[in-house]
């Protein structure tokens, strides 16, 4: 954990200090070595929140992008269940930064527990995920909208990372620590499975993502892309209707031409 209660106040780990866990009230020891990020640890070496995972530098760097009062916030479920959200914004968005593998059952449980959940997934955990993800975007996608840029994935089964997360009812952002043409760090937004019948992705800059949450306008960022998806699908449907109509006309014209020629050939025989 990043924070513990020291004399009733939330503090980060400092060598030699002892704190109290804000979740379970037990004693915490400051771990301030040179390998892992400085953190608080239970004496029993067992986290009181079973959903909690050890933090990496990647994990801690993401947390630090948000106000300290929004970090490590205890969320209370309606049934009395409690868990510590990595970040919980003032507007009520809970953010989980996920580095390690998460089985389907636990992922589903978290989606059901947090009413407004956002996942940020470390896309570099497995060595080949980034390469395979780019290949799917290049070979298995269709552009739905230009600005904001949104693509539809035709075959998500070609990518393990997409298969793992495509059946969520929450927003998922993949972090490959890559930069766009403007040299801005960029995430890939995977839309919830219950929004549409298809799988959609859209790039979002890291700064845009962070600022939208810190400035309480995340919904605006999402709605702009949802609108573009609807518009893109409607445009595609219109194009297909025009194509099918013109195709039908071409077929009828070809049939009429064939029948006319056939009739002409019959007449020339007499």
Tell me what the structure shows.
Helix 5 packs across helix 6. The protein starts with a strand and ends with a helix. The chain has two domains: 1-48, no CATH class; 54-232, no CATH class. It has six helices and 14 strands. By secondary structure, the protein is α+β, with helices and mostly antiparallel strands. Helix content is 35%, strand content 28%. It is elongated.
For the largest beta sheet, what order do the strands appear in spatially?
6-7-8-9-12-13-14-11-10
Low-pLDDT runs of 5+ residues are: 266-270
Number of domains: 2
- Terminal CA distance: 97 Å
What is the string of SSEs from the N terminus onward?
EEEEEHEEEHEHEEHEEEHH
**Shape estimate:** elongated
What keyword list fits this structure?
270 residues; alpha+beta; nine-stranded mixed sheet; three-stranded antiparallel sheet; 6 helices; 28% strand; elongated
What can be said about this structure in brief?
The chain is α+β, with helices and mostly antiparallel strands. The chain contains six helices and 14 strands.
Ordered list of secondary-structure elements with their pairings:
Blueprint: E1 3-6, E2 9-12, E3 18-20, E4 27-31, E5 39-42, H1 57-63, E6 71-76, E7 82-88, E8 94-98, H2 104-113, E9 117-122, H3 129-139, E10 141-145, E11 150-153, H4 160-165, E12 171-179, E13 185-190, E14 199-205, H5 206-214, H6 218-268
Parallel strand pairs: 8-9, 9-12
Antiparallel strand pairs: 1-2, 3-4, 4-5, 6-7, 7-8, 10-11, 11-14, 12-13, 13-14
């Amino acid at each position: 954990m990043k924070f513990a209660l020291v004399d009733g106040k939330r503090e980060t780990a400092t060598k030699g200090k002892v704190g109290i866990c804000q979740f379970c009230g037990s004693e915490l020891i400051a771990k301030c070595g040179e390998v892992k990020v400085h953190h608080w640890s239970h004496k029993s070496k067992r986290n009181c929140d079973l959903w909690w995972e050890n933090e990496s530098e990647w994990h801690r760097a993401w947390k630090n992008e948000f106000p300290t009062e929004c970090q490590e916030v205890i969320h209370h479920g309606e049934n009395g269940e409690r868990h510590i959200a990595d970040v919980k914004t003032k507007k009520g968005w809970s953010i989980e930064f996920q580095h390690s593998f998460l089985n389907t059952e636990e992922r589903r449980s978290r989606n059901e527990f947090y009413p407004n959940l956002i996942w940020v997934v470390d896309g570099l955990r497995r060595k080949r995920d980034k390469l395979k993800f780019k290949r799917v975007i290049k070979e298995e996608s269709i552009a739905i909208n230009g600005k904001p840029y949104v693509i539809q994935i035709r075959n998500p089964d070609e990518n393990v990372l997409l298969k793992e997360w495509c059946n969520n009812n929450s927003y998922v952002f993949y972090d490959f620590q890559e930069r766009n043409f403007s040299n801005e760090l960029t995430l890939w937004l995977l839309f919830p499975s219950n929004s549409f019948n298809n799988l959609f992705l859209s790039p979002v800059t890291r700064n845009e993502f962070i600022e939208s949450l810190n400035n309480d306008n995340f919904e605006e960022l999402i709605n702009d892309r949802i609108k573009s998806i609807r518009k893109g699908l409607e445009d595609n449907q219109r194009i297909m209707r025009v194509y099918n109509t013109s195709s039908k006309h071409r077929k009828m014209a070809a049939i009429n031409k064939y029948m006319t020629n056939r009739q002409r050939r019959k007449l020339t025989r007499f």
